[in-house]
Specification:
Elements (H helix, E strand, L loop, with lengths): L1 E3 L5 E8 L2 E8 L6 E5 L7 E6 L5 E8 L1 E7 L2 E3 L9 E6 L8 E7 L5 E10 L7 E4 L9 E6 L14 E3 L1 E2 L2 E2 L6 E3 L6 E4 L8 E5 L5 E5 L7 E6 L5 E6 L2 E4 L3 E2 L10 E10 L3 E13 L3
Keywords: Disulfide bond, Glycoprotein, Immunoglobulin domain, Signal
Protein name: Ig-like domain-containing protein
Amino acid sequence: MFVNYIFVSELFMFFTVNGQACEKLVSLPATQPVLRYDFNYTIQDVIIELVNPNNNPIFRVSCFETCSSAEYLNSTLASTGDITTGKFHIKLDSFGDGQQGNYRFRAPGWEKVVSKCINLYMLGTPSPSTISANSEPYEGGTVKLTCHSISTTDPPGHDLVMSYTWTKDGTNLTSGGRFILLPNTAATLTLNDVQRNGPDNIAFNSTGVSLALSDGDRFSPVACLADCKPSCTFRWTKGQIYVTSSAVLDIGIVGSDDQGIYTCTGTHSIYTTYTNTKNYSVIVLCKL
């Protein structure tokens, strides 16, 4: 499962705060976001400045019939801007931590009336996702899985919507068949007719299920295999005697005491434990 995180240079939205309609601008760090204000020429003989979240001017221009004499601090005029026509499109030289927050185009000589406010957000990588289930899955049943991640975009209050992508064995899931995804965000996945994923088809990496050796011969290791998703754990026993928790049985130099039936047990345990077994016979012949 993955959280969708689409990197965009800038994202515009609008909201209202204290009666002032403010634009929302979301941008990646280390980019050059552009703060745009199209000046209304019906307002004449005025100075317009752009102040940052610390209330420090980063752009100022005088408008008397036409606008001219622009000054910039840690900013420049964007390619879409034109001071003479009132297109104050101001590009930050860089965007880093501490520069996110509220920017305001204002007329300082008019009791600092705000002409336009822009909340600039720094787009952050979502926190690592967690998955929870509404109940313990059982074979043939239904379970609802919920994925949750927290936005690190700063400052808070951006109202960005998190969307999610679910995968199974590396393949993206879509609604249909046994799978139902919550529309729009895919935050929840409903899985119908839960199926057990092993251990099935236990086998050995050797030919046959038995081996005859003479006393003193070296045993060729035998690996226990099974179809499991996720992977199974294995253990070997001889009767009631524990031999190893490895998938590989390696007796070494065999003696008469090593003869017998060895059992490989594969275990798959997530919510419910499933096991499967297969026997391997070792026959030790006495040397004459």
